Design the sequence.
């Protein structure tokens, strides 16, 4: 008889604590062949997993634009930050914020590790604005302007642009 669990085994006994139990005093009653011993009270400290919220503004970016994804981690600071882009680790992205450039649309997520374990944030989707792919400069202008079209990797497709005045005439 005996053992840590009282069943003859020497396996450790774990009691699942919750944040609501933080600050409670606990004692352990140990029964053995020569009687029982009650330990001194021990203060329970429960450290919760961090909670993470990530935000970005704007969520839609155009050519030459960027957006920054910011994280709020509670409790803070976290020991490590690992950013994910479309469910894959983003190499070198290990800070509490992430700068995203045009041409990198997709889903972003943050995993944070502290002494209690790993927590996962919500997912932010950053999109490229196709409406911003065509830029006329200068704007306003006196009728003379330059048009730039950002097409990403497909530069071989021929495109046609029609220009109309304020009366709707070509």
Sequence:
């Amino acid at each position: 008889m005996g053992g840590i669990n009282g069943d003859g085994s020497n396996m450790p006994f774990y009691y699942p604590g919750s944040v609501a139990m933080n600050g409670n005093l606990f004692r352990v009653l140990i029964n053995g062949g020569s009687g029982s011993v009650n330990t001194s009270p021990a203060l329970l400290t429960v450290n919760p997993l961090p909670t993470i919220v990530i935000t970005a503004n704007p969520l839609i970016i155009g050519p030459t634009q960027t957006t920054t994804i910011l994280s709020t981690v509670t409790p803070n600071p976290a020991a490590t930050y690992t950013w994910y882009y479309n469910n894959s680790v983003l190499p070198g992205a290990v800070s509490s914020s992430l700068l995203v450039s045009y041409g990198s649309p997709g889903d972003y997520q943050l995993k944070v590790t502290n002494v209690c374990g790993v927590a996962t944030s919500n997912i932010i989707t950053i999109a490229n604005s196709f409406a911003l792919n065509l830029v006329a400069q200068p704007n306003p202008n006196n009728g003379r302007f330059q048009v730039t079209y950002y097409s990403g990797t497909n530069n071989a497709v021929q495109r046609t642009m029609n220009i109309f005045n304020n009366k709707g005439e070509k």
Q: What stands out?
A: The chain is about 0% helix and 40% strand. The chain has a mean pLDDT of 81. Residues 1-46 form one domain.
